[in-house]
Amino acid sequence: MNPRPASGRAAAADRLARADRSRTFPPLPVRTGARGLFAESWWGSAWLDALETTALDSARLARGRTYARDGHVDTINVTPGRIVATVRGSRPRPYSAEIRLRTLTDQEWDGLLDAIAAEPGRFTALLAKKLPPVLAEGEVRLLPGPGDLVPRCSCPDHGRPCKHAAALCFQVARLLDADPFVLLLMRGRGERELLDALSRRNAALTAREARDHAPAAGRPAPYRRGPGTGGEPQAADAEQDSAAASGGVPGEQPTPGEPPSRGVPARSALAGRPRPPLPPPLPLPPQPGRPPALPDGDGLPFDPATLEFLAADAAARAHACATAARTPGPGTEHLAVHSPFPALPPWEDAIRLTATAHPTAGLTATTRALYRDLAAATGRTPTDVARAVAAWRQGGPEGLVLLNTPWNPPAGDFDRARSALLAADLPSLRPRHNHLTDPDRGIQLRFGHDSRWYPYESEPGAEDWWPAGPADPDPVGALTTLLAR
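Predicted structure:
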């Protein structure tokens, strides 16, 4: 036998099990209406009761409630025994808050599942995202009690809990209101795993009840073969064997002259059935999303700021590809959609990533550190990197080409630009290659291969040119904008 299929099925089952025991929730919306309760269900209220009985400082608890209400809690990840989220505080980088809760033992889970399966209404309530009250009254403590919630946080506050962990607890209460399976996951079992286990228990219970009630209902016992080894089959057995061999039903005789029914393969029976159309795709957001800010982590094998850059770039590229796929040109509806991002050399791609990950970022401490790292990796200076980033933001790949590579444009638009500038009573610029320059004023226009004009500026009398503003197809508009800076 070939073990590969079994191994593949086992690996797939293992992946499903791991995915079932980890759930990630996006940041919850800011609560409006000021002072409403965080928990509306009885199990959500019980969760908050455990938090409030654990808290040693009501002021921290109130501050955490405000943080949660104002949306300071980012993405929440729930796994057995652990809830983690980043919470934005008063500092630029968020903190990593965590709540731990003891998972149930296998014996406790057996008792809990038996209690749910004992009454069909309890299983039905769970399917409707309601927690049966009986689960809080049994021997197994499903809901946390005083001291069961163990908060942790990367902030310097050693309160129990600090305001960041308290904010996480308040948001978890909202998750529990919507889905009590979150609580069951914290106790150690995922939703799919629980529903499968309950379905098996219900099936076994139904079969046992049917078997126990069969004699009482007066059902005749099926005919069996005669006693002893090799006994002759009874009449009912012979009838069933004959029906099974012919593909018919016991007790029915085939019509004379008709071949016995052999059944129809499922594939053939379903081949003619129409399939419902796929639902329409969700609308694209106007802008790509921003990844959540990562907390500082000493000893991590990666730099959180670099990971944020990569995540932001991946979101931007995915958004651009999805936009290109939804807006085909005329006559290209059936053609394959290619990526709108051209293949770039490492230096240009590094500049693209740096320029587009935070397109509006100024020269902050994070960007300075990024420029230093990129300069060291490419053998350039941080000033070279900053200038290249400005050129990319000005005009993309063409802006980066014009930064260091002059060219000789053919006669036409470049020559007519000087006449247009003089007619608009603008300063006279000296031509050289694709540049029009006034060194005394420190202004320059560069003509690109895309027939756009790229404004540059420098200190008067110095040759230290920097991109200054967006490109413009009109030289008069580009120079007017440059002079107005």
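Summary: The radius of gyration is 35 Å.
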